[in-house]
Amino acid sequence: MSHRFILYIKELTGKTHEVQMTYETSVEDVKFIMQDLEGYAPEDQRIIFAGKQLEEHRLLVDYSVSKNSTLHLVLRT
């Protein structure tokens, strides 16, 4: 069973979502979670962590995302 942890996804509006993830969660999965929560199309989302835009095909563990980390969501306009 994969270890689950809490992380935060913060929008530019300041709204923050607390979500449960695993280290095997992909960046694409994060985008689908935000689509479910807020209705944002995955192709309109950019996920930023530690100043870097995360690539969809990579896993959170690839970017050293861990419990209580904050990802930033930027929407393409």
Secondary-structure class: alpha+beta
Low-pLDDT segments: none
Which CATH class applies here?
Alpha Beta
Strand content: 35-45%
Assembly state of the chains shown? single chain
Whole-number mean pLDDT: 95
Summarize the structure.
This is Ubiquitin-like domain-containing protein. This protein has 77 residues and is α+β, with helices and mostly antiparallel strands.
Outline the structure in words:
This protein has 77 residues and is α+β, with helices and mostly antiparallel strands. The protein has a single domain, classed as Phosphatidylinositol 3-kinase Catalytic Subunit, Chain A, domain 1 (Ubiquitin-like (UB roll)). Helix content is 16%, strand content 36%. It has 1 helix and 5 strands, in the order ββαβββ. It has a 5-stranded mixed sheet, with helices on one face. A hairpin with a 2-residue loop joins β3 (45-49) and β4 (52-53). The protein is globular. It starts with a strand and ends with a strand.
Offer a few descriptive terms:
Ubiquitin_dom; alpha+beta; Ubiquitin-like (UB roll); 5 strands; 5-stranded mixed sheet
